[in-house]
Automatic annotation (TrEMBL):
NCBIfam families: YHS_seleno_dom. Residues 58-93 form the YHS domain. Residues 155-180 are annotated as: Disordered. This is YHS domain protein. Keywords: Signal. The lineage of its organism: Bacteria, Pseudomonadati, Pseudomonadota, Alphaproteobacteria, Sneathiellales. It comes from the Bacteria.
Length: 180
């Protein structure tokens, strides 16, 4: 009896450990979150709801790490080391897809410059207009997105470009990652 219980527990742990996140959103840059540094968000001052956040910090193409099937770029080796120590802490929720899109039941790209950290988790949204919808009721949108993610996680990553949307003009300048 105890042996069967131990074997069942071991198989459950193996199954949980082998479960992977969904496909990471990677845009035309070839990098997760468009080549921006995921750790840098946690060092930026967060603006109050309703105000635009500080722009994302571009990573460097020469300082990278692999996680969740994608290449991530970092502004410094120290940031890369922090990320590698706990990648799930720094990677955006919903594999870099728009949090409001997930709340609405679909996978659309996240714009790395439209971000908010809530309870230690980084969330991205697709356009400034969508940020307004997201921030109008963050707790309700989080509840919906968390419920929807169970079904959406295994679906393919978005292949759309957040930069292709007219509403995103002015949300970024230059390219990321930076080539040294």
């Amino acid at each position: 009896m105890i042996r069967s219980l131990l074997l069942a527990s071991a198989f459950s742990l193996i199954a949980m450990a082998s479960a992977q996140a969904g496909a990471q959103y990677v845009d035309k840059s070839g990098f997760a979150i468009g080549g921006y540094d995921p750790v840098a968000y946690f060092d930026l001052a967060q603006s109050p709801v309703g105000q635009r956040q500080a722009p994302a910090v571009p990573g460097k193409a020469s300082i990278t790490a692999e996680y969740n099937g994608a290449t991530w770029a970092f502004a410094s080796e120290a940031h890369r080391d922090r990320f590698l120590a706990d990648p799930a802490k720094y990677a955006p929720a919903y594999d870099g897809h728009c949090a409001y899109g997930i709340a609405q039941g679909g996978k659309v790209p996240g714009n790395p410059n439209l971000w908010r950290i809530v309870d230690g988790t980084l969330y991205l949204n697709i356009t400034p207009t969508v940020v307004g919808f997201w921030e109008a009721d963050i707790p309700d949108n989080l509840s919906k997105s968390r419920a929807n993610w169970a079904e959406l996680e295994s679906k393919p990553a978005s292949e759309s470009s957040w930069k292709a949307l007219d509403d995103n003009k002015g949300t970024y300048s230059g390219e990321a990652p930076i080539t040294d």
